[in-house]
Structure formats: structure tokens, C-alpha cells
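Contributing new records

If you add data, match the layout below exactly. Sequence lines come first and carry their own label; structure lines follow with theirs. Keep one chain per record. Anything else will be rejected by the validation script.
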Amino acid sequence: MKISQYLNTDTVQGTMLLPLLSRARCAEKYPGFFRDPAARKAAGELEVPPMLRKMAEQAAPLYALRQEVLLRAARRYLRSCPEAVIVNLGCGLDTSFSKADNGRCRWINLDLPGVMEVRRRLLPCGEREELLAADAEDLSWIETIGSRPCYVIAGGFFYYFPEARVRRLLCAMADSFPGGGVCFDCESPLALRLSQETARRAGSAEAPMYFSLKNPERQLRSWSRSFGGITCVDRLPGAFRNPAYLPAADRFRLRAELRTGLLKFVEIRFRGKRTGN
């Protein structure tokens, strides 16, 4: 299926292909600790350039890690609030719902209309899983959530927005979802510059990246009084530390990126009392 003909991989919209292909490759290479049958099936239907396949091979553990960390955050929230709404902001071709579903939550995948056109073809929705074709910066999507508690995950999303726009969106969510939270990934300023250079060399510089954080707690704390706890993940999940599952070179690289702060997973909990169950 030539779904890729609808995408320009040099745009922000086109960046959704690499995470899908990388997770599919990780599930194929390391089935002992990472499984993603939906990604493997969808990736098998795509015709993509060999260069992109090569990039996915190299990035496979990284994108598996990103999904796992965000999933863990969503699962923690659902344990305390099982009927919550989980919003996958800038979902792309992410396959997290089936791994996080507790049988009671409502899951909303939000992304641009062009992304949703491709997603509908490749990844059918499960029960209580919804697609919302919208621009996240058009804050009207927040009104569709209703009164249930809400938690947001945003993988690979904020990189492409200047800081002022990230601040506006995070503050709006904090004010609208009391007792909720958000978990997202970002890079340090140095890592962002390295990523931009890598993209330039790969000929993908038309999707520029802007947002980075050196010290998330210090930088984000003043943004909103509605921000509660701000924490960073600096340790690999258990399976990613197991030498029986992942080669030493991959484990060392991922561990080093987290410990040095080049790669960050940030969670912000929102103040206030939940209004739902």
C-alpha cells in the first residue's frame, strides 16, 4: 500500500513514519521485551525509501523507549483514575492504546487531518479509542474532553514549536484539567542542535525543531501556578536494562542520554481536584 505517497517526510507531518518503522523494527529484533504487532503490520504495508528504513534500524530502541516511558505514565494515572480520558497529543502513528487500555478509560488520538487520513488506513480504532482531527494549538479541542479527569501524553510533539507556543498549550491544559497531567519527551539545547544537524545531513531540514529544556523543573516552574510536581525520568525501565534483551551498545547509549540530560522525559502534574471518577 503506497500510503507514503501522501506524505512529505521533510515536513512535521511526515515525521510520523520514522517512529512507526522504528518500533516495528525493535519489535522484530527484540520480541523478548518489546512487542508492537500493530506497528509491525502497519509498517509492512508501507513503501518507504531505503534511507528511512536504515534510519529506523538505528533508532529502533530509542522510539521503543519513548513509547514505554509515556505508557508507564499513562498507566500510573489510570491506576488512580481508571475512567480518565487519555489524550495522545500529536499521536502520529502511535499504537499505545492497546497496551494501556484498562477496559474503562477513554482514549483520544489527536493530530492534524492529513495524519488522521493515513492513520485511518493503517491503524483501526479499538473500543473506546477515538480519532480527533485537529490542530492542537486551536485550543477548542480541550472543550471536547468533558468533565472526566484527563492526562496527556505527547511523544515527539513539542520539539517543533517555539517555546512561547509550548508554554501557551501547557498552561491551557493545566488550567483545564485540574488533577491531571502531561508527560512528554524533549532534548537539551545541545542535543537539539545535534538533532538539527543530523536532519540537515539526511536532507530533512524542512521540519525544523525549536523547543528544548536544560533544567525542566527550574524553567517550567514559573510558567503556571497550576503546575504541581515536575519530574524527569533519568533511569531506563527494567527491561531496557536487561542484557538478555538489549545489546550493551544500545543500553549504554540510552542510559547515557538520560543520565546526561541530552534526552528528557518530563512529567508535569496539574494542581486542583479531579471532577470525575
